[in-house]
């Protein structure tokens, strides 16, 4: 039985989805508090992974999302509303990408005889 090669530590840190950051470090990186990160987790904006010891671990991707919510909160938006806004913005972006792809497929798949 052959094993897949394990990614090196450097490769993991290059991976935006690798849960590399502890709660304290993550909060420091986005200029927030650990309580803010717990709140955005409770609002289901992000779902940090847990270490074997049960500690929350965050990826760079998750921190970018949390930072967007923090910016809204800094401008007076309640945390729950900020999380919902970020979720809806992402859903809208995805819908626009899908519509564009469907339009491209439709334009490219038509009759080109005339």
In the CATH hierarchy, the architecture is: Orthogonal Bundle
Low-confidence stretches: none
Which whole number gives the mean pLDDT? 89
Helix content: 55-70%
Supply the number of structural domains.
1
Order of strands across the main sheet = 1-3-2
Distance between the termini: 57 Å
Provide a count of the helices.
Answer: 5
Order of helices and strands: HEHHEEHH
Largest sheet: number of strands, sense, barrel closure: 3 strands, antiparallel
At the fold tier of CATH, the topology name is Multidrug-efflux Transporter Regulator, Chain: A, Domain 2
Shape descriptor: flat
How many beta-strand segments?
3
**Which structural class best describes the helix and strand composition?**
mainly alpha
What is the CATH level 1 assignment? Mainly Alpha
Provide the β-strand percentage band.
5-15%
> Radius of gyration from the CA trace?
19 Å
Question: What's a quick, concise take on this entry?
Answer:
This protein is mainly alpha-helical and 114 residues long. 60% of the residues lie in helices and 6% in strands. It has one domain (15-108): Multidrug-efflux Transporter Regulator, Chain: A, Domain 2 (Orthogonal Bundle), CATH 1.10.1660.
List the helices and strands and how they pair.
Blueprint: H1 9-14, E1 21-22, H2 23-30, H3 34-42, E2 49-50, E3 56-58, H4 60-74, H5 79-108
Antiparallel strand pairs: 1-3, 2-3
Helix pairs in contact: 4-5
What does this entry look like structurally?
- This is MerR family transcriptional regulator.
- The protein is mainly alpha-helical and 114 residues long.
- The chain has one domain (15-108): Multidrug-efflux Transporter Regulator, Chain: A, Domain 2.
- It has five helices and three strands, in the order αβααββαα.
- The protein has helices at 9-14, 23-30, 34-42, 60-74, 79-108; strands at residues 21-22, 49-50, 56-58.
- Strands 1-3-2 form a three-stranded antiparallel beta sheet.
- Strand 2 and strand 3 (56-58) form a beta hairpin.
- It is flat.
- 19% of the residues are buried.
- The model has no long low-confidence stretch (mean pLDDT 89).
């Amino acid at each position: 039985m052959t094993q897949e090669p394990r990614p090196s530590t450097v490769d993991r840190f290059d991976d935006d989805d690798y849960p590399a950051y502890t709660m304290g470090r993550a909060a420091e990186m986005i200029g927030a508090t650990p309580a803010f990160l717990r709140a955005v987790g409770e609002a289901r904006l992000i779902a940090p992974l847990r270490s074997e010891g049960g500690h929350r671990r965050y990826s760079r991707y998750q921190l970018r999302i949390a930072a967007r919510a923090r910016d809204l909160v800094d401008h007076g938006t309640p945390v729950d509303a900020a999380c919902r806004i970020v979720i809806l913005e992402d859903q809208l972006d995805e819908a626009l990408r899908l519509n564009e792809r469907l339009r491209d497929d439709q334009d490219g798949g038509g009759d080109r005889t005339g």
